Amino acid sequence: MTSLDTDFVRAQFPAFSEPSLQGKAFFENAGGSYTCGPVIDRLTRFYTQRKMQPYGPSEPSRLGGAEMDEACAGLARLLGVEVDEVSFGPSTTQNTYVLAQAFRTFLKPGEAIVVTNQDHEANSGPWRRLAEEGIEVREWQIDPDTGHLDPAKLEPLLDENVRLVCFPHCSNVVGEINPVVEVTALAHAAGAFVCVDGVSYAPHGFPDVAALGADIYLFSAYKTYGPHQGILVIRRALGEVLPNQGHHFNGATLYKRFTPAGPDHAQVAACAGMVDYVELLAAHHGVGAGAMHGLMRDQEVRLLQPLLDAVKGRNAVRLLGPDRAERRAPTVALALNRPARPVAEALAARGIMADGGDFYAQRPLQAMGVDPDQGVLRLSFVHYTSEDEVARLIAALDEVL
């Protein structure tokens, strides 16, 4: 197959056959996607058959531990990294905070990091607090009109003092896909490590992290069809030199070094269902699992362009980010001439589930002259969204705008 079989895709998500959701179209996927059937099946099985401490001698305990290991191995395979370079935490926000604590003692006063004002606060706030330890925090700023993050403006910020560059794969309000390979090469050439927040990109096709070259890549399972977990990839060359943040006796195990608390056994095990889902789609479409990234993106680009065309020329509507679908994720933020939340409520009355607010992206909104208190209307979808749902969204927008 050369295009995504949307009917087969939607059949893997129980939400689409749930009676209470009939007649509703889901356009707040950037806040969390629907959960696929394989994840729900694994979570149910763990809680009903294997709910005890894993890795013990009894059969339920042994099987529970094996399923947790399966999740790590499957995600590593999908992301192109080593198994022990994948670890889990309660959220990406928490994982970033733990990493920032590791860098707090790793870096020396007078050394520098680079952050952006395009980020969701989770990949900005914890790093900025390193200034309390005498670390210089340099800001790579977006274009205030377009929200674009220009690599040419990063280069003057890089010198021998910079040890870390933090930026998003794409912003949760701007939506533009940043050139991770190019930015990583610039940072590495200056001797800096790279941390990429992939929360807003990974739902649109699991990336080949090894090919991107980033030292750290973070994303959220609950936005990639799974349970509420944060997934952290940290490459060995960095992970083994950062101070251990876990129990002292776990310091020699890479995937435990950045997990201060014990893992959520059931949710980690259920993450294997995310890999099951991608591999199920790949088998159905007659391609390798890695090729699903392209099929998902092609589907999203095809559905996104009509939406962009419908909103970009409207009076009193400002589209944040690019108006070409191939340059962005299908996370579309609209700045209006009125508060965004009541508009989202009007859409909800028409069966369109979206939202309005600042989405923890106050810095980029302020940089682009948008009042965070007024917020933006955010319309976001993933590959399981149908052409009919996008058409319904555009029709509803015609009514409420």
TrEMBL record:
<protein>
    <submittedName>
        <fullName>Aminotransferase class V-fold PLP-dependent enzyme</fullName>
    </submittedName>
</protein>
<dbReference type="InterPro" id="IPR015424">
    <property type="entry name" value="PyrdxlP-dep_Trfase"/>
</dbReference>
<keyword id="KW-0032">Aminotransferase</keyword>
<feature type="domain" description="Aminotransferase class V">
    <location>
        <begin position="26"/>
        <end position="393"/>
    </location>
</feature>
<keyword id="KW-0663">Pyridoxal phosphate</keyword>
<dbReference type="InterPro" id="IPR015422">
    <property type="entry name" value="PyrdxlP-dep_Trfase_small"/>
</dbReference>
<keyword id="KW-0808">Transferase</keyword>
<dbReference type="InterPro" id="IPR015421">
    <property type="entry name" value="PyrdxlP-dep_Trfase_major"/>
</dbReference>
<dbReference type="GO" id="GO:0008483">
    <property type="term" value="F:transaminase activity"/>
</dbReference>
<dbReference type="InterPro" id="IPR000192">
    <property type="entry name" value="Aminotrans_V_dom"/>
</dbReference>
<dbReference type="Pfam" id="PF00266">
    <property type="entry name" value="Aminotran_5"/>
</dbReference>
